[in-house]
Amino acid sequence: MPGITREEVAHLARLARLELKSEELDHFAGQLDDIIGAVARVSEVADQDVPPTSHPLPLTNVMRADEVRPSLTPEQALSGAPAQEQQRFKVPQILGED
Amino acid sequence: MADTVIIKLTAAETAEKIASGELTAVEVTEAHLARIEATDEKVHAFLHVDREGALAQARAVDAKRERGEKLGPLAGVPLALKDIFTTVGIPTTVGSKMLEGWIPPYDATLTRRLKEADVVILGKTNMDEFAMGSSTENSAYGPTGNPWDLTRIPGGSGGGSAAALAAFQAPLAIGTDTGGSIRQPAAVTATVGVKPTYGSVSRYGMVAFSSSLDQGGPCARTVLDAALLHEVIAGHDPMDSTSIDAPVPPVVEAARNGSVAGMRVGVVKQFAGEGYQAGVVQRFNESVELLKELGAEIVELDCPSFDLAMAAYYLIAPSEASSNLARFDGLRYGLRVGDDGTLSAEDVTALTREAGFGDEVKRRIILGTYALSSGYYDAYYGSAQKVRTLISKDFEKSFEQVDVIVSPTTPTTAFPIGERTDDPLAMYLADLCTIPTNLAGNSAMSLPCGLAPEDGLPVGLQIIAPAMKDDRLYKVGAAVEAAFTARWGHPLLEEAPSL
Amino acid sequence: MTVTELLSYEDALASYDPVMGLEVHVELGTKTKMFCGCSTELGAEPNSQTCPVCLGMPGALPVVNAIGVESAIKIGLALNCEIAEWCRFARKNYFYPDMPKNFQTSQYDEPIAFNGFLDVQLEDGEIFRVEIERAHMEEDTGKSLHVGGATGRIHGASHSLLDYNRAGIPLIEIVTKPIEGAGERAPEVAKAYVAELREVIKALGVSEARMDKGQMRCDVNLSLRPNGTEKFGTRSETKNVNSLRSVERAARFEIQRHAAVLSSGGTIIQETRHFHEEDGSTTAGRIKDNAEDYRYFPEPDLVPVAPARDWVEELRATLPEMPRVRRNRLREEWGVSEHDMQSILNAGAVDSIVATVEAGADSAAARKWWMGELARNANEQGVSVDELPITPAQVARVAALVAEGSLNDKLARQVIEGVLAGEGTPDEVVEKRGLKVVSDEGALGAAVDEAIAGNAGIADKIRGGKIAAVGALVGAVMKTTRGQADAARVKELILERLGVSE
Ligand SMILES: [Mg+2]
Ligand SMILES: [Zn+2]
Description:
The complex is a heterotrimer of chains A (98), B (499) and C (502). With 98 residues, chain A is α+β, with helices and mostly antiparallel strands.
């Protein structure tokens, strides 16, 4: 298994939207390299013909009826908002694509 | 009755005395609030004490009794709630700066059940941030001390709940167990903690760490108290798709009729060896001897996949966490950092997450992001899910031969605060024995089995049962507890130094 | 703004072969959201239809809407898909402020429906088979309002305001396999496919599928390859093309744009593009590089969906007549040509005409109004006819007023205009605007006499046998009655007065 570099940590931090400081990148790169080294052992079973378990319970088809339940009031919905305007969540300018 | 007597009562005794009128719920609540006031500066078990809410609930219970209305089985009994469950009107921080001051507009199902059972919620207890940790040192609000030795960790992530019990601040507490966060704190504080079968206690309103592993459960000072609480919080919840729609196993009945006679008890050879403290092994072996004396048959078990449990856990839990914690972006609730009118939402989110999350949380988010990223998914996340299958199979095979499995709960006793904070791998070892159960989804309990001779600190015995056979934990646990208490002449907690 | 180079459509097709992929998102018409009990009713106050689940609050958990699953299966069956025996939801992880959890609960490698097809009929009656890759369940995002910039655009905005009422509304995403072999008809195929899909969705009753309301949204993926080659070219992904006409225009524009780039030796960049209604152009959006990594994994808060086979067969048995079959039946019942039926479909008028007939109009009259006045109106506004603010019952009422002689065609058009303008029901418009055929024979007779007297020369010509000249006198009468006379009756009266017969 490959180790993990500072650049990879920086890339992962971008994906995870974490503005890591330079010293954190170094710190985490070292620690994560150790951790990944330790957990990479799971790949010992990669070739084994066992089904993956994503869930500890064999439940299926848990569904609810299409019936309206009371929503929060807009005041409750917005009660924790760092900023609001016109009964909407106010967020800084979005750089995104749309 | 004197406060010093009230706080030492069990939950069962307290409930009985309130029901009979010997004590009022207000008296009981006040005694515990006073105890918290007197000791929590040292212990720091609580992040938030809801004095007014607790007294109001206590008064409501007393009024109900006066009116002759039927009381719940734990009516008026105080409880310390891990700060991971949402509570209307009471801050819920999950031990993180990210949610400092957040007051949820909704109650967790578990919170609602406690209220409906007339339990008195004293406040919210300290925990490792987002339940990531084994020592409560990862709390953004400072560590909790172990009442046995305030310089040592009370376990984690539910160290606050366990410490509150051991410090006699509350007879009941709630924890959550993703990799051992109920059982490991119970072990190092000489209290009782149960991780119920996955899906038996609703996760609705329990802030998610790792969805497929997280499970709320009861913490108490006795097996019977844990059972009484178990019965209140367990049961089907239509708000949680992973909730089991089946009757709760008869845990209270089992706790009242402890016995191991004729039972087959398994000992897994993988739960031993390097890293296990001598005193822990000694107390565990004595426990096995005790079980034999009580009429159990001991069976040696081989579960080779358990050796990979830790590795699988440290891929699955961080992966799910990286996704579960994405919602903390500074836009809808909680902390927002850097919004100076010029920065973009993207930047503000990145700065908020940088400032709001602690080291361990960031570490796991990055680890999980890595394990799920394209090119690594199959080798890491995919393989971990296969290990999970193998572990379930090992348990299945084992439970064909035995009724329950026993092991030490943790490889060592409580370590000093600060000892492992810079060594995540060493920290992760604390959950060596508890993790397989989370991966497979079955149930387990930790209860005290003595003090390690070398450091005089509590050792926990873990009992593991198949899924939805949680009652076996209580049957065995009650028998062990009775035998040990008889041998010691008192509950182990009596030996803890006074605060 | 740079001008996009385009090659003429003919030149583009002379050298290149287009390959398309169409991704359509349909908002289901369930009462509640996909994973919580919040109402999906449109037009509510901002953030009044939200709860801990659809706001992504800490601790909240999803529970699947059974009708959401049922609708997905119905769509799958109608598109001739296989229905998964066992499938799961997955999390698609990416950060975006309109998505409260910062992951979309969707399906990844285990869609509920897969491997189907939809036959679509082109303008000339030819059937083209569009292969369906998959149809899967997911959830919609919230809506952002960009403040401080020009006309609510994201660029230049100082901040944005988020309303999560739409967040969590069930979506079915329907993805085609690469559409090959359409050649120059690719844009037409794209439009016909979306139109037919819309008919299917409406027939199933799982959504109103109104593109103008965003209930149905289309992404057009397009690439070119040199004629005679196999390997696909690099594609562009034109997002949110939200009318049938735009689907055709977007495909056409991209064919011309790609061809211009390729023929001048350039390379196409894989990117998303934005479609502009005003001029039918597309402009570059985000470049799709490798940084995009959605880290899909099975949603641990939900359990697998394993539709029982007998349930699937039950649903199959309740599927309505498919739109194309129905259209062929209606074509025969109405006695119209394939071509006319195709025009009716393209105008999105099939259901409206059927409903108008059901409301009592005869089919010729229903077709006349929907395909005439109303189709023209819809076209002007860039919507389909059923999106106009007039109901089939109202059109049937107009037809009835014409049939009973209360209105002539000209007046009827004014009534329709009034209804569309929001002036009320047909009867209210007639009342308010005073639109009634003058049927009072006395008044009409006076107007006829006046016209004859004022146009003696023309009257003489008619008396002399030049009957065609009667039109001028009819016109004069219509003018004095402000159009409110029945022209046929006026002509009769004039000829009667002048003592001539046709
Ligand atoms: Mg999609
Ligand atoms: Zn909702």
